[in-house]
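FAQ: What does a multi-protein file look like?

Like this. Sequence, then C-alpha cells, then the next protein.
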Amino acid sequence: MRNIINIINIERQSLLKGLAISFLLTLPFTFLPTIIKHGLSIRAIVERFNDSILYSFGFSLIVVIAAIIHNYNGLVDRKWYFDKPAFKDLEFYGRIDGVNSVVHDLETVLLGKIDNYFFRLNLVGIDKANPYLEIVPLIDLIEKEKEIDELKLEYNFQKNFFFGMRIKLSEIDLADSKAVRIILTKLAKKFNELNFESLELDENELENGL
C-alpha cells in the first residue's frame, strides 16, 4: 500500500492529466444515447448533463486506477530482476523514468559506470514471454559514423530512441554476479578501442539522485 501511495505521489501530475484527458474524451460519448433517442434536443442534453459528468468521471477514475496498478506491477517486476546478483553486483544507481508522462509507463532504470563509460540499463517487455535487457552507453556519437556502423555490425547495436543493444534476459545467467559486468566491460573496452568519448555525469549528483 505504501508503494502505491508513493507512485500516486510521484505521478500525481500525469495522473491528473490522464484523468482530465480521459474525462474529456469520454464525456461526448455519454450523450449519444440521449441524442439517438431525442435528437439534438437542448433540453434533453441539459437534463442528461449531470449523469454524463458522473459517468465520465467514474470511467476516467477507473482508467487512472488501472494505470496505477499497471505501473506498480511493472516496478515490482523490474525490482525482482534488478535484485538478482547479475545486477546487484554492478552497484548501479536506480532511477525512475517516465515520470509526469501520460503516454509512457513508469520504469526503473539503472545508471552507473564501468571503467570510463557510463551505462543506462533498462528492462524491455517484462510483461511478455521474452523480456530484454536494453544497454544504452552514454557516449558521444558526433562524427562517429564509421564506428557506429562497426558496433551495429559486431554487437547488433540499434539506433531507435536510444543508441544501444538488446540482449534476451534468458541468455543471461542472473544468478552469476559477474554476468552483466562482463558484458559491460567488454563493451567499454570496445568503446575505448574506437576512441569514443564518454558523456560525463556528475557522480556525486548521480549518487544523490540525479
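And here is the next protein:
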Amino acid sequence: MVNGQRVLVIDGMHEIQEVLHAVLVPRGMQVDWVRSHVEQVPGEAAGRPDILVIDAAALPIQKSGNDREWRGVPQVILGADEGASTADSDSQHTYLNTPFQFPDLIRAIERLLPIKAA
C-alpha cells in the first residue's frame, strides 16, 4: 500500500469504517464513509477513490461499478451473495460472504489496492 491512497466505504453501518480507519489511517491512507451510493462522498471533487468497500445491502451490485467515476475502481463487495466467495474474485473484485472476519477484509483490500508510482 502507498501513502495517500483513498478507501471509500459504502455501508449502512459505521463499524466497518471505524475498523478500517483504525487499521489503514496509520499506514497513511484516507478512509471515507457514506451510507449509500446516493449520498455525497467526502472529497469527491478531489477525485475517485483507489478502492471501494461495498456492503451489498447499501449498494445494489448492479450499481456498484456504474455510479459516478467508479468504473475500473477495484471493489471488495461484502455479503453480495450466499454463493459468492473469494474464489469468485477477479482482478478488480473480491466478494466476502457475511459474516466475515476483519483480517480477511484487510487482506482483500491489500490484494486489490493498485500500486501507485511515487
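Q: Is there any per-entry metadata?
A: Some entries carry free-text notes. For the entry above: The radius of gyration is 13 Å.
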